[in-house]
Amino acid sequence: METFLFFVFAVFAVAGSLGMLISRSPVASALWMVQTMLAIACLYLTLNATFIGVVQVLVYAGAIMVLFLFVIMLLNLEETPRLSAFTWQRAVAFVGGVAVLALLLTAVAEQTDLFPNPTEVPVAVVDPAGEAIVVGPEGEAAVVDEGEVAVVPVDPTSVERIGVALLTRHAFTLEIVGALLLAATIGAVLLAKKRFA
Amino acid sequence: MDLTWYLSLSAVLFTIGVLGVLLRRNVIVVFLSIELMLNAVNLTLVAFSQAFGDVDGQILVFFVMSVAAAEAAVGLAIVIAMFRNKLTINVDELRLFRG
Amino acid sequence: MELLVQLILLPPIVIAGLNGVMGLFWPAWRKQEWLLGGLALAAVAVPFAVTCLLFFGFEAAEVVRYFTWLQAGDLRVDFAYRIDELSLLMTMIVTGVGSLIHLYSIGYMHGDDGYWRFFAYLNLFIFAMLNLVLAESLPVLFLGWEGVGLCSYLLIGFWYTDLKNSAAANKAFIVNRVGDFAFLLAMFIIFKTVVDAQGGVFGLDFATLLAPETLALFAGPTGFWVTVLLLIGATGKSAQIPLFVWLPDAMAGPTPVSALIHAATMVTSGLYLLARLSPLVLNSGALWIIATVGALTAIMAATVAITQNDIKKVLAYSTVSQLGYMFLAAGVGAFFVAIFHVMTHAFFKACLFLGSGSVIHSMHHVEHELEHKGLIPPHHGPGSHDTPLDSEATQNTLRHSPLPYDGPFDAQDMRTMGGLRKFMPITAITFGLSTLAIAGLPPLAGFFSKDEILFRVFEFGQSAHIGYMALWVVGLITAVLTAIYMTRAYLLTFEGSPRWPDSMDTHPHESPWTMTVPLVVLAGLAVVGGFLGLPPVFEDIGLPGSWIHGWLVGHGDHLGPVADSLDPLWASVSPYYEGEHHVSHAVEWALLGLGAVVALVGIGAAVYYFRFGKRGPEADRKARKVFGLFYTPASHVWGWDQFYNATFVKGTVEGARKVFAPFDKNVVDGGVMGLAGLVRRAASGLRGVQTGVVQTYALAIVVGVVAVVALVLFV
């Protein structure tokens, strides 16, 4: 079942990206891109990354792509003619792209055996009496003096875990990114402003 | 789930993004291709996060998305500004730093 | 002792630096003639005083070592100086005569724009010369050798704005170079010989070199060739055949320079070198070459001197001739006699040159007066105003020139002198006394030194090889010629009636005290200087013998620094010693008498021929007709200059033009320009990378990433 879902969404993603690549109209490209985004969001869901999947739809498909469409419409762009001219640069670019793919796949193929069994999940320790014992965000086991150790699967992708991590370990980065977004906002506004002569 | 599949898919998407950056002449489509590349990377990160059970992967995805948003906004603002001056979004003609 | 030697060596270079730097950067300094000149004079007078101190308190030879100069492998040269009889005597001559000439220059160079430069160069020269004579090793000597050559160049071309002077300076330097090259080769051979045989560290110092063990290494062909090379070096510096051609041209420099450098000091360096290395030279088997060169040079130069009209040229050739005498003396192993003649020659020749300078100085004033009166065309001259030679006034006056020769008025030409004794009595008397001295009239200095030379040649001819008698005859003939040409010079200049235009109204006058005092002192020395080297036979009549012999060669048990071929003290070193007294005392007295007669004959002949100055240039013309076969080539220096010009000079210039110039233009320039062109073309090609299209750059990035990742994955 999982595999089937994966392939379906994968096909949608690749098709969308190819469509984006080949389309002559920028609007069409953007819309194909939206399809790709949604497919990827679904893929996130199959990976149990619920939070990320939702954020993908909200932010990427919902905000960034909309922004792209706004700009395309603002600039009132026409369709660009299909270019079939052969230049050395294009040939090299094509070869380069293929090389990138080949290398990446090679890397993937060679390194996979070092990956742990993805079905294994970290465990938490639970008091046999049923009371929860404080566990670390990654599910590190705390030493328990008495009682048995029960294995309970901990959902690594739960929103709670993400939230805790964001606000503890990555708090500083969070603040920086916030500042970055502020700067980007101001910058974008300034750059795109109409100059009043 | 097989990690390898996800990684391969990510590689393919990344490659398509690279080709888009290198081959398309419409600067908007170039930006879209960049976003595609970022998405491919995000996919890789989430796959690994699931594989290792480490939530930091998804944290990183979170940040990547934020930065991608910021970058898209600023980039498009630049495109608008250039379009005002040159009335073109053809990458070949936007070449001020010519040698 | 270290301090005293420093007090001798350092003042000249310090004051030279001071005058040079201050004069260069501070224009106000250049005007302070008395300060400048006074400092320069002190810089030579103080060393003279110190030298006198060392001289009168001399006990034994000492070597003072300061610091290491060169050190590489087996070679180690220190700045070390030797205080012994020979070096002290030479230093006294250099600083003593040098001081007088510095004083003279204060008057002579008055008003010249380059006054400060002159004294800076002069002091630099003294420094180099002192290094030369006080050096304990050949490299330090060579340092001084080159230094005096440099200063000679700087001072000959002192008035460098006139191309003739620069050419003369170049000639001096280049000709000297040939000699220096030979000197260097000699040093190399010496070094190699000693180090190969003895090992260890060697710095060509005299203490080691003149030790008996080391001298033995030079007994055979090595010593012969070393001596020959050193002789070539000496002929360059001391103006002998074949490298004498620069000295007459050197008269282009100011007269004090001619007096100091080209009469009294620098030109004696060659003799000093031979005297210092006398034990080596004595055993080299090359003595006959030295004697022959000296004798031939002496007679050749004397014949030329008779034909010259420029008073300084007469003195220049006279110097070459007298230097020939000194080489002749060295060539019979009588090195101390050569040094004795160096000393007396310094006295009278410096006096003669300074006297001629005094005359020239006055004749320049006459020239200016005549120009003012419009009687002669104005012309370029050192330190005078420039007037174009092709202006109409000039051309006009030239056509009706009252001068007996072509061209502008020449203050140095004796044909427009005459009768100067009335106007410049001090100059005339001192010049006259020095003339008698150089002619060899007893009891003046020249008589004793020249006679001693001739006597030693005679003795050597009797004991060693009969061939030397021919050289003795040559020496006698030269003595006659010397007396003739010097007397002629005196008569043409000072006696008779004046021959310059408007001589009734335009008068020269005597020079200032700064110039006449040195003249008087030097003339006095020329009179009494000979008593330092009285002939040994004088002891028979109760007079002291030769002090200088005892001083330099040794007396009693003590061995001096200068070897002697026929002295019992040096019997173990000299291969020519065969017991004492080859020539009887009677013959010695006869030879003394012969010397006096020769001098009188020469002087008398000239006095008669020129009617005590009443007959001037007409007498010369008559002589040219009578002696035409000799006179004409002699007046052209027997073709030496023409020969060198046609061969070496022309050869070098043509070679440069045909070979080196194209090489420089095509290969060197071509290479450099080609390289630049290459860079330009490469840059222009590479510039194409900067397209300005972002995608190209992105492609480049991708290619780079692919390469790196592939490297990481597969390597």
UniProtKB/TrEMBL annotation, chain B:
Known catalytic reactions: a quinone + NADH + 5 H(+)(in) = a quinol + NAD(+) + 4 H(+)(out)
Group of enzyme by EC: translocase
Cell compartment(s), UniProt: Cell membrane; Membrane
Keyword NADP: no
GO molecular-function term, one example from the UniProt record: quinone binding
NCBIfam families in the record: PRK05715.1-2, PRK05715.1-3, PRK05715.1-5
Entry protein name: NADH-quinone oxidoreductase subunit K
Organism in which the protein naturally occurs: Rubrivirga marina
Gene label: nuoK
